[in-house]
Amino acid sequence: MKRREFVSKMSALGLAMPLHSSFMDLFKLKKLGACDWSLGKSSDPMAFEVAQAIGLAGVQVNMGNVSNNLHLRQKAVQEIFLKKSKETKVKITSLAIGELNNIPYKSDDRTTAWVADSIGVAKNLGVEVVLLAFFSKNDLRNDPIGIQNVISKLKEIAPDAEKNGITLGIESYLTAEEHLDIMEKVASKAIKVYYDFRNAKDAGNDIFHEIKLLGNDNICEIHLKENGKFLGTGDIDWQKVSDALEDIGYSKRKWQQLEWSLPDKYDYVLGHQKNLAFIKTLN
Question: What is the pTM of this model?
Answer without folding.
Answer: 0.91
